[in-house]
Structure formats: structure tokens, C-alpha cells
């Protein structure tokens, strides 16, 4: 078999030649697939975040499906840790406020534990 | 495409840092826990009744008292006087009793003003019966705090 060096032009010619030999049904299916791919490409250009997620496997590309469960879990864990951190600090401030209230009130502090 | 994603990513990071910084403004500045010797003379003076137990207190609690000592100068003279009286009593309470007092105070704070005053009055009377001399030593409420 003779090895020919493939150039963009030669590939183009080969593809055109091959297309000419395909039956109508196959070319129609190819056309439909191409149009669908172009549509998705255009849609992703308008949604860079979704494109990034799709590129990294975090988004399936379909609007009917959602994120992978593991990312939901991570998001919930992140939210919980943020919430618990803020609550922890808030709790400290509450203690300080309550202590000041107790220590500056005219009601003796030991009255609370009689 | 990748450039815009990177820009978006950077913007998200900046937004997150800004958000954390803004949230931090609403939270108290965490004072660093310290040994008794590391406290300022003013803090030592304010917290003097707690000196003996200071180095055994959990760091979180030390921070709490440091925060209180730092707020002391901004209190009115009457409240400062009460504080000096009360901190002595406070120092005699066990950690569990202090916690009990905090919880009770928080409960009272949840009540409507009239009911809260009634509860406080009941506590005051009960305490006065048990400790007739001690109850009268804390300066009473002032009409203009």
C-alpha cells in the first residue's frame, strides 16, 4: 500500500469523495448531528460557566440533568462549615454580651444560681 | 473561552474574599488568649478577681474576659462600679454556675419586657431573703443608665 502524506487539502478531498458515496440517510444523520453540535457550541459560548463545568465533567450538557451528587454534597458541606464557623464566632460574641449584661446589672450574679 | 473562564474564576475568588472580609467586620475581633502576666496592667486590674484561676481557664473563656475588659472603659461610671462589685461575686461561682447564670439571663432576655422585669424582681426578692446584706451592695438601677 502506498503511503501518501495527508494534508488538509487531501483530507478535505477524501472526505468530499466519501460523502459522495454515502447514502442519503447517512448524510442526513450526519447533518443533523453537526447542526446539534453547533447549536450546543453556540449555547456554551453564551454560558462560559456552564462550558467550564461541561469541560471538567461537572455538567452533563443537558438541561434535564443536574450536577453530580458529589458536588452537591461538597457544596452542602462547604455551606455547613461556613455556617458553623459564623455561628461559633457569633456564639462567642453572645457570651461576651451576656457576661457584660450580667456583670453590669444591679441584680447580683449569684441570684441567678440561688 | 479559557481566558474568560479564568477571569470569571479570579472575579469569583475576589468576590469570596470580599464577602468574607465584610462578614468579618460584623464579627468581634478575636483577642489573643494570654497568660495573666501577658495581660496589660489595665486588663489585670479589671479582671483582678479572676487572677487566681486565670491560667486554668480555657483560651476561649480567656478571650471572652479580655473582650469584656476591653469594653470596660466604655461603660458608664455606674456600670463600672457595678462591674467591680459583680466580678468579685462572679469569681466565686463555679464554671457550671456561671454557665447557669448565662443561660438564665438569655432566657430572661427572650421574655417580653414586663414579664422579664417580673422575673428579675422575683429573683431579686428571693436572693434578698437568702443574702440580706449582699443583695443591697450592688448599686441599684439608675433612671438614666
Name the poorly predicted regions of chain B: none
List how many beta strands of chain B DSSP finds. 0
Shape, per Cα inertia axes of chain A = rod-shaped
Helix content of chain A: over 70%
Shape of chain B: extended
- Assign a percent range to the helix content of chain B: 55-70%
Distance between the termini of chain A: 103 Å
Q: Note the main sheet of chain B.
A: none
Biggest protein-protein contact in the assembly: A-B, 30 and 47 residues
Q: Termini separation of chain B (Å)?
A: 63 Å
Total number of domains of chain A = 2
Share of β-strand residues of chain A = under 5%
Total helical elements of chain A: 4
The SS-based structural class of chain A is mainly alpha
Low-confidence stretches of chain A: none
Kindly provide the radius of gyration of chain B, computed on alpha-carbon positions and rounded to a whole number of angstroms.
22 Å
The ordered string of helix (H) and strand (E) elements of chain B is HHHHHHHH
Arithmetic mean pLDDT of chain B: 82
Our Rg estimate of chain A from Cα atoms comes to 33 Å
Hey, roughly how much beta strand do the residues of chain B contain?
A: under 5%
What do you see in this structure?
The complex is a heterodimer of chains A (114) and B (145). Chain A is mostly helical and 114 residues long. Chain A is built from 4 helices and no strands. Chain A folds into 2 domains: 7-64, no CATH class; 67-114. Chain A has helices spanning 8-21, 24-45, 48-55, 69-104. Chain A is rod-shaped and about 100 Å long. Chain A starts with 7 loop residues before the first helix and ends in a 10-residue tail after the last helix. Among the domains of chain B are: 40-92, no CATH class; 94-139, no CATH class. Chain B has helices at residues 2-25, 41-46, 51-54, 59-71, 77-92, 95-110, 113-130, 132-135. Chain B is extended, with a radius of gyration of 22 Å.
